[in-house]
TrEMBL record:
Removal of H(2)O(2), oxidation of toxic reductants, biosynthesis and degradation of lignin, suberization, auxin catabolism, response to environmental stresses such as wounding, pathogen attack and oxidative stress. Disulfide bonds join C38-C114, C71-C76, C120-C313, C199-C226. Heme b binds at H192. Its cofactor is Ca(2+); heme b. One of its GO terms (biological process) is response to stress. Its main location: secreted. Binds 2 calcium ions per subunit. This is Peroxidase. The gene is LOC112289218. It catalyses: 2 a phenolic donor + H2O2 = 2 a phenolic radical donor + 2 H2O. Ca(2+) 1 binds at D70, V73, G75, D77, S79, E88. GO terms for cellular component: extracellular region; plant-type cell wall. The keyword Calcium applies. It comes from the Eukaryota.
């Protein structure tokens, strides 16, 4: 009788382990995660990103900034998409985040095609890649199967996202906390080639005392555009080809025409200057950027059974 009972217990344990392994295999992150459950997912997302990009090219840098600000806080779990007075979106550092409407549109059509299947975190991951492709950059393989987080805290972005005034050493430290090295940090800064900044982000360089290393013509131009730090003027960081994913951002830095301290500092430091120079080549830059974004998508992804698949990206279920 004891042998039978022992054998039954062992059999039950094996069954539990087998079921557990099966669940993990189904829910594990995968490059073809939606192949059966929602095969049209990527095409729907690309269609919406492209549709909005044609109307407003600024959604491309907006989507890239969204995924950076999402992944650097609690990992890539779409917590930045949740709205509310105490959510990450309410943080001062996230005040000008842009591109939410693209994610919401893609989610709307995905819910029609495949209800409760595609997470908002995965939509953002695909959309950020599509934004780079549409501006002339190189795509990368996106792993999917992330779940959406339920927690979004207003104070956490300030604690995890570097500011425009950050030194290079501070940037290196912040990126290292996310598993990204110094080269990744410099390369990913190249996303600013399609980005804009604002007067308050360069206030440490153009008002008393001014940054004497800034070219006089640039200083004069910026002071005219930004009579006050609170001026709402948008300042393109790549004045020659703002909607093209190219190397002009790095060329500007090399010439001393970087706008923010966190940008120009990359060429002042001996250990980051060679990385900037290495990315003056277009092919090298787009390849390295794709590789760095591939790494970024693995920052603390939320997997089943944790989290949820939101019906609407701005709200918990």
């Amino acid at each position: 009788m004891a042998r039978i009972l022992r054998a039954s217990c062992i059999f039950a344990l094996v069954c539990v382990i087998a079921i557990s392994l099966s669940v993990n295999q189904v829910d594990a992150l995968d490059y073809n995660y939606y192949r059966k459950s929602c095969p049209q997912a990527e095409s729907i997302i690309f269609r919406e990103v492209q549709r909005y990009f044609k109307k407003d090219p600024t959604v491309a840098p907006g989507l890239l900034r969204l995924i950076f600000h999402d992944c650097f806080v609690r990992g890539c779990d779409a917590s930045v998409l949740l709205s509310g007075r105490r959510s990450e979106r309410a943080s001062a550092i996230n005040a000008r985040l842009h591109g939410f409407q693209v994610i919401d549109a893609a989610k709307h059509y995905l819910e029609d095609a495949c209800p409760r299947t595609v997470s908002c975190a995965d939509i953002l991951a695909y959309a950020s890649r599509d934004a780079v492709v549409l501006t002339g950059g190189k795509g990368w393989r996106v792993i999917a199967g992330r779940r959406d987080g339920r927690i979004s805290n207003k104070i956490e972005p300030e604690q995890n996202i570097p500011t425009a005034f950050a030194s290079v050493n501070e940037l290196v430290s912040t990126f290292a906390q996310q598993g990204l090295n110094t080269e990744d940090m410099v390369v990913l800064s190249g996303a600013h080639t399609i980005g804009v900044t604002h007067c308050n982000h360069i206030s440490d360089r153009i008002y008393n005392p001014v940054d004497k290393t800034m070219p006089k013509d640039l200083l004069k131009s910026l002071q005219k555009s930004c009579p006050k730090a609170s001026s709402p003027t948008s300042l393109v960081m790549d004045r020659k080809s703002v909607h093209k994913f190219d190397t002009e951002y790095f060329r500007n830095i090399r010439a001393g025409y970087g706008l923010m301290t966190s940008d120009q500092g990359l060429y002042r430091e001996d250990f980051t200057r060679p990385i900037v120079d290495a990315n003056l080549n277009q092919r090298a830059f787009v390849n390295r950027f794709a590789e760095a974004m591939f790494k970024l998508q693995f920052i603390q992804p939320l997997e089943a059974p944790d989290g949820e698949i939101r019906r609407r990206c701005q709200c918990r279920n």
